[in-house]
Amino acid sequence: MFETILDEEERGQVGIGTLIVFIAMVLVAAIAAGVLINTAGFLQTQAEATGEESTSQVSDRLQVVSTSGNVTEVGTTGEYVVDNITFVVAKAPGAGNVDLDETTLQIIGDQGQNSTEVANLKTDSILDVNNNVLTDNSDRAAIFLNVSSDTLTNDATTGGDFDNYGALTAGEDLSVTFTTASGASTTKEIRVPTTLTSEESSVRL
């Protein structure tokens, strides 16, 4: 049924050409696998970096704990205004370290808008804040904003002043936005009480 091949010259042989083709296929497959592995590693690294940046833009923000304003009389007219605003801030839950000196503050209200860096304003550590960097959820810092002058200065007593933004009158609204170095923003809406009197040296905003 089966014929036995006795002639050695009639046996199948693997030629050198076939061997070369086989080796070439193995090399091509190895190179392709290396390229895929490198590409996957690069994409993974890029995805991790993008994820971290996106998380920072959402979570690394400030939380305004309280806001108060200093009430003062305008000359001897009997009219009272808020000429200085104090913000007590902390880092939001889940946020990383927040450098106040790398944070900007923008105000938008009835008198227009303006912005400056918190580094231009007077700040005061309330709880365990070193170098104006909030590192723990218990850290608290006060930021003082003077809105009674016409020039932007760094006053060690009252804080920085906003150019072309005057004191806040009774009933005036103000929107304040803090933006950290990572781009995360926190907006605080302020409304001055409709009545300001000499009996109040400060009011909660």
Topology (elements, then pairings):
Elements (H helix, E strand, L loop, with lengths): L15 H44 L2 E12 L6 E12 L6 E2 L4 E6 L2 E6 L4 E6 L5 E2 L5 E7 L7 E2 L3 E3 L11 E7 L5 E7 L10 E3 L1
Parallel strand pairs: 8-10
Antiparallel strand pairs: 1-2, 1-13, 2-8, 3-7, 4-5, 4-11, 6-8, 9-10, 11-12
Protein name: Flagellin
Keywords: Archaeal flagellum, Cell projection, Cilium, Flagellum, Membrane, Transmembrane, Transmembrane helix
Pfam families: Flagellin_arch-type
Largest sheet: 7 strands, mixed
Quickly give the structural class. alpha+beta
CATH class of the largest domain: Mainly Beta
Percent in strands: 35-45%
Instruction: List SSEs in N-to-C order.
Output: HEEEEEEEEEEEEE
Helix content: 10-25%
Q: What fold name goes in the CATH topology slot of the largest domain?
A: Immunoglobulin-like
- What would you call the shape? rod-shaped
Indicate the multimeric state.
single chain
Description:
By secondary structure, the chain is of the alpha+beta class. The chain folds into two domains: 15-59; 60-199, Immunoglobulin-like. It is built from one helix and 13 strands. The chain has one helix spanning 16-59, and strands spanning 62-73, 80-91, 98-99, 104-109, 112-117, 122-127, 133-134, 140-146, 154-155, 159-161, 173-179, 185-191, 202-204. Strands 1, 2, 6, 8, 9, 10 and 13 form a seven-stranded mixed sheet that branches. A four-stranded antiparallel sheet has the order 5-4-11-12, with no helix packed on it. A hairpin with a 2-residue loop joins strand 4 (104-109) and strand 5. The model is unreliable at 150-158 (pLDDT under 50). InterPro entries: Flagellin/pilin_N_arc, Flagellin_arc-type. This is Flagellin. Flagellin is the subunit protein which polymerizes to form the filaments of archaeal flagella. Keywords: Archaeal flagellum, Cell projection, Cilium, Flagellum, Membrane, Transmembrane, Transmembrane helix.
